[in-house]
Backbone:
């Protein structure tokens, strides 16, 4: 049918543009790399209780 609406694509989590199936869920390789860089630099953190330093627990601090 010619009047069927196109399925909506999710927005890129980095810039908000429509995602590209080749880079899903991102819109481009650039946004994929930006997201990876954020993970590697500690920009994303999973909430939880503080983790004790193993050296402090052994009295080596």
Residues:
């Amino acid at each position: 049918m010619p009047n069927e609406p196109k399925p909506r694509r999710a927005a890129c989590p980095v810039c908000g543009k429509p995602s590209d199936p080749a880079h899903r869920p991102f819109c481009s390789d650039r946004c994929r790399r930006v997201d990876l860089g954020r993970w590697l630099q500690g920009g994303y953190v999973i909430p939880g209780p503080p983790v004790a330093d193993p050296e402090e627990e052994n009295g080596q601090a």
About this structure: The chain has a mean pLDDT of 86. The two ends are 71 Å apart (CA to CA). Helices lie at 29-40, 54-57.
